[in-house]
Amino acid sequence: MIAVTGATGNVGRALVERLVAAGEPVRALTRDPERADLPEGAEVVRFRPDDPGTVFDGVTGLFLYVQAGGGDIPGLLAAAREAGVRHVVLLSSGIVGGGDESHPIHVMHATAERQVRDSGLTWTFLRPHAFATNALQWAPQLRAGDTVRGVFADALTAPIHEDDIAAVAERALLDDGHEGAVHRLTGPEATTNTDQIAAIGRATGREPAFVEVSPEQAGPELFPHVPPEFVQALLKGFAASVGVAPEITGTVEKITGTPARTFGQWAEDHAADFRKG
Ligand SMILES: NC(=O)c1ccc[n+]([C@@H]2O[C@H](COP(=O)([O-])OP(=O)(O)OC[C@H]3O[C@@H](n4cnc5c(N)ncnc54)[C@H](OP(=O)(O)O)[C@@H]3O)[C@@H](O)[C@H]2O)c1
After folding, report:
1. Tens digits of per-residue pLDDT, 5-56?
2. I want to staple 47 with a disulfide (CB 3.0 to 4.6 A). Which of 29, 95, 153, 224 is the partner?
């Protein structure tokens, strides 16, 4: 049995869908099972990190989303280990092992990695760079009109499809050989924000315009998916990425046998999220 924390999130949901499709027993952990809308076939269970109760009984592999730890990842991992969990796959970040060590996202993920290393469980770290789902920050504007206000039109990233991260997590949870491995994950090509808006336009049959605003004019409303305390650090990261080629790895294909999907493919998969009305 695999337990998936953050099971209603971008990566967690894709992983639960994959495990169900593969016929693997999966326990999907969420704060609110009534709203979870997870696939039939998954055992959907309410999760309180400070009181895990019996959620890890019968579980051998755990997919860990850092924020689901509720601030006490060591306690959560101790409970998992005691219940018989052997291996944990941590959704970390590409900012670890190359990025600014004082960045709050670096601190959060580096701390979680250390806590997992210290847990006595075997582990695999997934260190993805930018998620393609970050483009959902533009969805409210594109559902309302054909103009997107945003920062750093030329910032370069190699966005990764959430289901490609889930595919790697699935292999790391089900196959031998990923113990102690660190997988750096990216999409297959560098794109600018302007490229991404154009790709969403092609996927939705429109020609939206990107209107660049200065970082000083950018409020948290432009980043509906980002906790407000991370917005300044995020803007600093974007500024540093303008004109700098992002890291691109072939790890998704190496591990899953299937090439990582392009941002254009992601936009087609998510066209409905950007349609008006
Ligand atoms: N976005 C990027 O470019 C990027 C890049 C590298 C790494 N990351 C890391 O990837 C993770 C985000 O993954 P994701 O996009 O798949 O997740 P997500 O969609 O933001 O959320 C995952 C799920 O976790 C639960 N959750 C959210 N906040 C929580 C909290 N404070 N306490 C407990 N549970 C909470 C929610 O489920 P329920 O409400 O059902 O419990 C939510 O659906 C973060 O750790 C982020 O730092 C992101």
Report:
1. 999 999 999 999 999 999 999 999 999 999 999 999 999 999 998 888 899 9
2. 29
Q: Which amino acid is at 70?
A: G
Q: What number does the ligand 1 atom closest to the CA of 70 have?
A: 32
Which residue's C-alpha comes closest to atom 28 of ligand 1?
67
Residue closest by Cα to atom 33 of ligand 1: 68
Closest Cα to residue 119, out of 86, 149, 92?
A: 86
Q: Is the CB of 91 under 6 A from ligand 1?
A: yes
pLDDT digits (tens, 9 = 90+) for 121-147: 999 999 999 999 999 999 999 999 999
Structure tokens at 52: 């895990």
112 CA distance to ligand 1 middle (Å):
14
Which of ligand 1's atoms lies nearest the C-alpha of 162? 16
Phi, psi (deg, nearest 5) at residue 140: -60, -40
Rounded Cα distance, 239 and 152, in Å: 7
CB of 128 sitting under 6 A from ligand 1: yes
What whole-number distance in Å separates Cα of residue 28 and Cα of residue 8?
8
Residue nearest ligand 1's atom 7 by CA? 93
Q: What is the CA angle 85-250-243, rounded to 5?
A: 115
Q: What are the two backbone dihedrals, phi and then psi, of residue 90, each rounded to the nearest 5 degrees?
A: -100, 130
Tokens of 115: 């806590």
Nearest to 167 by CA among 4, 2, 3, 11: 11
